[in-house]
Amino acid sequence: MLANLKYDLPASIVVFLVSIPMSLGIALASGAPLFSGLITGVIGGLIVIPLSGSQLAISGTAAGLAVLVFSAIKELTFGGFLLALVIAGILQIVLGLLRAGVIAHYFPSAVINGMLSGIGMILFLKQIPHALGYDVDYVGDFSFSQADHFSSFSELINAVEFVSPAAIVIALISLTVLIIWEQPFIQKLRYTRYQGVFLAVALGVISNQCLLYFAPEWALTDKHLVRIPVFEDFSSLIAQFHTPDFSMLDQSKVYLTAITLALVASLESLICLEAVDKLDPYRRASPANRELIAQGLGNMSCGFIGGLPLTQIIVRSSINIQSGAKSKTAGAIQAIFIVLAVKFIPEWINTIPLATLASVLLVVSYKLINPTLFKTMYQAGLYHFIPFCVTILGLVFTDLLTGILIGLTVASFAILLENFTKPILNTP
Predict the structure, then answer these.
(1) Which of 318, 267, 306 minimizes the C-alpha distance to 288?
(2) Most buried of the four, 35, 148, 206, 248, by CB within 10 Å?
(3) Are 204 and 356 within 8 A, CB to CB?
């Protein structure tokens, strides 16, 4: 563990910086207390990661479940929803013990690759408005139809009308630093391999602070910065934790919600598990059944103290891998950073411009899109290329879960058709 610390520590800081606004944004979209998103991020790092067999996956708040959670809270109250989440965690543990994770081995590679490229495209589209200084849609949204009644494409047109010169300059400075840091001559230098993000964030903060001092009318205001809740004392912090409403155990809607949460969260986690294993430079295989059990224990914990549903998150896992993490220590440390930030330095974290983090995610999105992959999939044949493209389009024009299901459906038909059209060889 200590041997990998020089790689895992810098990676954990990058994941931490991105996790904060995403966790808060998804909590907001879910209709839950903002602190619930942070609880989930901490549990994902301190409970799920040590129990998981994956070395590089990051678990946290799931954007794909935001609509479901919003409806559940509205119908059951927050306490009833937490009860459903506890039951969902138990169901995931049962699925793991029944070895239901075996389905992870049957996800077609075309769908996995399409999911990675599709998420990259969504991430790119969603971060451009933040880089322009238009921060109406929450950070971490992956749905085509947004809560602000715009789509991923119409949001781009709308954002142009509300650009912030300060955000654009800060985003360009950060993006320039990140691109330079990707160059081979920088990567070869000692102590500079993983510091590009730190420099980009530092310059983003310094730039905005200079504007606040010299030209406050041009500076980015609070709505364009990371916003961690600030608590006056320990008692106000403790008050943010919530417990399940066990009086609703006789409500059938609680169990229906629990089953839905368990199935959707398990599917997302398993397909992300396969994707992370593909991205792992060491090609380490992660046990799927163990992952279901770890996710179940994590969701039970979230339900007991007021968190949101967690799954494996491909964006944060990709950032973890791209930042040079070698082991699961990185994921655990980023959770510790969340705790320390909330308790000791929320005011400092709240000076980070969202435009800077948008630049970080734009670089991540390009790597996920991986343009050379399109040529590789095309050369593999139409039975692979078509499901790959359909998965991408499904993700971009719907949401993460729907896009994956569309891709799996098309891939299944493609596999059947390919096998049906293959010549049958008669052997003597």
Answers:
(1) 267
(2) 35
(3) yes
The two structure tokens encoding residue 103: 């389905």
Q: Per the structure block, which two tokens stand in for 231?
A: 């608590």
- The type of residue at 421 is T
- Cα separation, 229 vs 158, whole angstroms: 29
- 160 phi, psi to nearest 5 deg: -60, -30
Tokens linked to 376: 């590789």
Tens-place pLDDT, residues 75-129:
999 999 999 999 999 999 999 999 999 998 889 999 999 999 999 999 999 999 9
Residue spans of the domains in the chain: they are 2-164+220-353, 368-420
**Are 55 and 276 spatial neighbours (Cβ–Cβ below 8 Å)?**
no
**Helix, strand, or coil (residue 311):** strand
Lookup: tokens for 356: 């800077």
In which band, very low, low, confident or very high, does the pLDDT at 147 lie, cut at 50, 70 and 90? confident
Which residues are paired to 145 by β-bridges? 151
As a whole number of angstroms, the distance between CA 412 and CA 409 comes to: 5
